[in-house]
Task: inverse folding
């Protein structure tokens, strides 16, 4: 039922009162808090860190199980990002391939594991099909090489724990330093077409944090040349950021924001380990080539 004032209200609306003037402000959507976003990321990291560090410290089959779990989730996320004609068969082939590659590496070494990963990358591309089958299959190789680097570093008999913690903390420090510096300083964009939020200030902040944490890890494990760890930490940050940009480019190509929703504030496993997947094999190759000569660890 309409009241007797409906017609008057249509012709001469009353002046806005205090409640009316406050309505637009109340209706405006609240902007996400940068501090709150950072808290979610930090809390997620605090939950994950004990699990990851515990498995790293234990080594052996416990660590291998962690690597296998992360590999399966990561390659599954990749097959969700990159379109294919037959997604489920592609995901099954990629999952089998990544597990076989890891088992072959444990038994016969990283070269044999790389061969197995390459074979399954081709099979995944064939089974999955689609116009981007090559990139689809590449995901198996991409994840396998990164995880192989991590596993090779940790399985070194003498310096495995220290080297793994070095690359792990360096990448964690890179992410935190880049995020904090990028948000607080801002400035020119690093690669605006690929990742609009990344800045040069963030890269420098990440390099600084990575160098510092790498140096502290070297000191903690009694490294003969912690100054080398300082330099390698900064370089690791650059490689890690390159890995981050690579994944961002793939996600942007297919209009995907996050690889998954497994980790609050971080997205999926690939979003969390993209830097590690790039940095670990580079550090492994560097250590294999010159680590003993420099008496780094």
Result:
């Amino acid at each position: 039922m309409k009241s007797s004032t409906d017609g008057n209200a249509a012709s001469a609306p009353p002046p806005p009162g205090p409640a009316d003037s406050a309505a637009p402000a109340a209706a405006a959507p609240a902007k996400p808090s940068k501090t709150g976003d950072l808290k979610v990321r930090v809390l997620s990291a605090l939950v994950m860190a004990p699990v990851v560090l515990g498995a790293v410290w234990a080594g052996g089959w416990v660590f291998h199980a962690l690597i296998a779990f992360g590999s399966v989730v990561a390659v599954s996320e990749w097959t969700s990002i990159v379109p294919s004609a037959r997604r489920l068969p592609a995901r099954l082939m990629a999952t089998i391939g990544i597990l076989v590659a890891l088992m072959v590496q444990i038994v016969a070494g990283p070269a044999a594991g790389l061969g197995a990963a390459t074979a399954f990358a081709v099979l995944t591309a064939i089974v999955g099909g689609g116009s981007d089958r090559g990139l689809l299959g590449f995901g198996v190789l991409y994840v396998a090489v990164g995880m192989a680097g991590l596993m090779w570093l940790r399985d070194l008999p003498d310096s495995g724990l220290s080297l793994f913690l070095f690359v792990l903390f360096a990448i964690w420090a890179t992410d935190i330093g880049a995020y904090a510096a990028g948000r607080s300083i801002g400035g020119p964009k690093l690669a605006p077409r690929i990742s609009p939020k990344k800045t040069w200030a963030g890269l420098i902040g990440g390099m600084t944090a990575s160098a510092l944490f790498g140096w502290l890890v070297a000191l903690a494990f009694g490294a003969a040349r912690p100054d080398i760890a300082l330099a390698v930490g900064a370089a690791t940050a650059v490689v890690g950021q390159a890995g981050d940009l690579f994944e961002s480019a793939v996600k942007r190509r297919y209009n995907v924001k996050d690889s998954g929703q497994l980790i609050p504030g971080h997205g999926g496993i690939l979003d969390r380990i993209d830097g590690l997947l790039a940095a670990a094999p580079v550090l492994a190759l560097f250590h294999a080539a010159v680590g003993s000569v420099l008496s780094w660890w």
